[in-house]
Amino acid sequence: MQRQVALIKQSLFDQGYLDEQFMELEELQDDANPNFVEEVSALYFKDSARLINNIDQALERGSFDFNRLDSYMHQFKGSSTSIGASKVKAECTTFREYCRAGNAEGCLRTFQQLKKEHSMLRKKLEQYFQLARQAGPKETARRPK
Amino acid sequence: MTRNQIAEELPNLAESKLTALVVDDSFVNQTIHQKLLNRLGIENDVVTNGKEAVDVYCSGRNYDLILMDMDMPIMNGIQATKRLREMGIESKIAGVTTRANEGEKKEFMEAGLNDFQEKPLTISKLLSILHKLNFYVQT
Question: Is the ipTM value over 0.95, yes or no?
Answer without folding.
Answer: no
